[in-house]
Amino acid sequence: MPPKAPKAPITCNWMRSNATDDTSADFVKTGYLPKKEIMSYRAPDPSEERPQPKDGEVVIFADHMSRGFAPPGSKFFRDVLNFFDLRPQDIGPNSVSNICNFQVFYEVYLGEEPSLLLFKELFYLNRQNECANGPSLELGGISIQCRRDCLFPYAEPLSHPKDWNQTWFYCQDTSPADESPLPGFRAQRLEPSHSLPDKLTQAERQPLIPTINKIKALLGNGLNGIDLVRVWISWRVIPLSRRPGLMCDYTGRKDDPLRHSRNDLLEDVVDDMTKSLLNESLTGCGRTGLSPFRKTNPAPTADDKFWKVKYDHEAAKKARKAKKAARRAAPRKKGSRPTASELLQLSESSESETSAHPETSSPAQPADDPDVVITRTEFVEPGRPTALAKCSAKEELLERRRAKLDITNYANLSIGEIISGYVNQVHNSRDLEIDMAACKKFEADISELKNRRKTQETETRKANAKFESSIAAQEKLKKKFEAERKTWDEEKAILISRAEQAEKALTERTAELSGLKRHVSQMVAAIFGPRSANLNQNVLTKLKAVYTLVEQLYTGSHRALAVVALSNEVPTHLADVLRRIAVLPQRFQELRRASARAGAIAALSRAKAFLPELDPADIALGYPSLKEDGTSFDQKDFAACVKIVRPVATLTGNDTDLTKYQPGYDAENQRIPTPRYEAISLVPPTRKHTFAPEIDLAGLIDEEAQFEALSGID
């Protein structure tokens, strides 16, 4: 067997661009490019064979923009290029479509920002060389492809899109400073040693299991790759662009900020645009597998049975193989893609050449020739040739009527025979004229029948076209109604679920409020006793009464603390107030002793002033045992002395300064330190009417907490 001839090298090099200023203007009209005041862009000079960008410019392709890209690209698109160290020139149209489909899938059906980790799990990078072990292609040196048999919505892309290397132009990179930039132009090819990412390890794949389970459920519910393309085309949203939100937030309104155009597309236009990006049939491009999730059709909740649908991956792979085999077996015109009419089998030739009864089919009609007369019709089997006459019907008729006379024998005829022959010829000529008139009438009838038949065939074709159009419209309406009915059922189920949840929450809150009202009434009764019946049943009135009592108690406590502190400085924090109230009884005892000390000092000081020989130490020992007359001094005598000095003691006490604390002094006349007070617990013992004793006030009363309503009292 002779060796195979080496394959011809594949090239995709820089060429002169056919992008012009009119191209940019068209992109501005459709919303793919902003005005030049917002972003700078320009078409290359017609003489440029290779890009020569200026500072701050990047090189992009108009063909990439037709596949869902708009500069400077989405954050995920730029992250992919920077992570794999690629430029826009390194990836072809189908690679851009794959990135676009992944971003649409993540934002629409998963409702999240795209994950680079899952992208590495589902897609891989493949080198594109000019030949085996040869250099990388100058443009499109890397192909981003879906892994074989991976769990991702499938649609067959176009095979080797052409001429995209002639659509380049320059654009300013307007990526945000805190995000990855859009990579700029590189003059060299990709190196053969350019690193390609490895497959994820089992540990790296572990966090993706919940998301992969969601993908299985989405595929089980009918999601396919055509849905990913139709959704952004019909919504007028550019996936690989900077947008104010995720695509799942799409509202469907014409003024939606996610849209790049307010003009809606007809369904036929959406089908054609989808078909132009995929190697799928026009009929398939018009079907929706799973309705996209958006504001008016939100994704099912996590506990919905939608996410429990099983997906038969093996059956899907078999169906995909059968579909490819059928597509390969179908007849195609060499060098051209199948048209929509071929895919739908609506070719006029197939309709006109096919009949239910071939043996009774109409014979082929000749051109409008008055000299041709159809004599009969007959079905001829293949392989049996049919001989056609070389003369017309008119010539055949004349031949039959022509006189069969031999001129060479005229000399042998008599005059009578010649006259008789002449008369006979005249009669024959008259019969010939009658026959020819009948033939012309017959030809006129045939021509009229031909015209009628053509008219009927035209009307029949029109009727068939209308019938097929009405059937197609009816099928579209049916599909639309089924999709809407499915959407209505889903919305109804969601609303019923929400209503049940709201009713359950309302029941719980009603029970909670009823218990709260009962507890408030019990607490008010425990505070005010039977007089609480004077209050109405309004809970707010009862709480106001409790608050008024608390406010009065707090104000009274403040005033008592001010008196005890012998100053106008009183604590403003609740914790300080509680600490001082806890030692207030001991503080009162100490103030009594201080007042007694102050009065005793005043009385003894005056006594010493009048009687210098008076020894205060003797007075401290008590009263004397004997009177001046030598009789004993008892308790009754002391009580009489007290009664005598009470008025004077009252005057002395009133004159004593009690605004200052009078400390005590020991025998050495040294000041005795102020005693430490032990705090007394203010929490009452638990009784049957004590409410919520287990509540810890530490979370409410700290060192900074104040009685906010009374924080500014004097």
TrEMBL record:
Transposase (putative) gypsy type domain sequence ranges: 59-126
| Pfam families reported for this sequence | Transposase_28 (PF04195)
| Entry coiled-coil feature ranges | 439-491
Species of the source? Triticum aestivum (Wheat)
Entry keyword set:
Coiled coil
Taxonomy of the source species: Eukaryota, Viridiplantae, Streptophyta, Embryophyta, Tracheophyta
Region span, Disordered: 318-371
Q: Which InterPro entries match?
A: Transposase_28 (IPR007321)
Family matches, as PANTHER family: OS03G0100275 PROTEIN (PTHR33026:SF7), OS06G0360600 PROTEIN (PTHR33026)
Skewed-composition ranges (Low complexity): 339-363
Compositional bias annotation for Basic residues: 318-336
UniProt protein name: Transposase (putative) gypsy type domain-containing protein
Task: Give the top-rank taxon of the lineage listed in the UniProt record for this protein.
Answer: Eukaryota
